[in-house]
Specification:
transmembrane, single chain, transmembrane helix, membrane, mainly alpha
């Protein structure tokens, strides 16, 4: 390969890197959407138990929209599998504790359900922040 060909290849690689850099930030949008969905779901389950059927329907629709959004993205953030697995594990733990304890010990108690809803938003918001930082500062 000649020097001019090598320089052209490097320029193309830099252009591709610059174009793809911002596209990994979509997971931040996913995380914020998931956090909002989680808050709404927990608040509805805890404070409006009679609305459970439509609450779960809305949850399913929003989740389907988030998944459709995720699978149509052309680039993935670095370590997406680990980020998503960590987020889902932490979120599941918070969600289950909030629901099990809340239903059995604090039914209808706003302080419990609001704090649990806000706490459930932390894992998706944390990975949204990480994904956004990675998309702004690639290695």
């Amino acid at each position: 390969m000649r020097q001019d060909e090598a320089l052209d290849a490097l320029e193309q690689a830099e252009a591709l890197k610059a174009r793809m850099r911002g596209q990994g930030g979509w997971y931040a949008v996913f995380g914020v959407g998931y956090a909002a969905m989680s808050c709404g779901l927990i608040l509805a389950v805890g404070l409006l138990p009679e609305a459970l059927p439509w609450t779960m329907g809305v949850f399913a629709v929003v989740l389907a929209v988030l998944i459709a959004y995720a699978v149509t993205r052309s680039a993935q953030p670095r370590n997406l599998g680990a980020l998503h697995l960590g987020m889902m594990g932490a979120w599941t733990a918070v969600y289950l504790v909030t629901l099990i304890v809340g239903i059995n010990v604090f039914p209808g108690e706003p302080a419990w359900w609001v704090s649990g809803a806000l706490l459930s938003a932390l894992p998706p918001l944390a990975v949204a922040y990480v994904a956004l930082r990675q998309s702004r500062n690639p290695r």
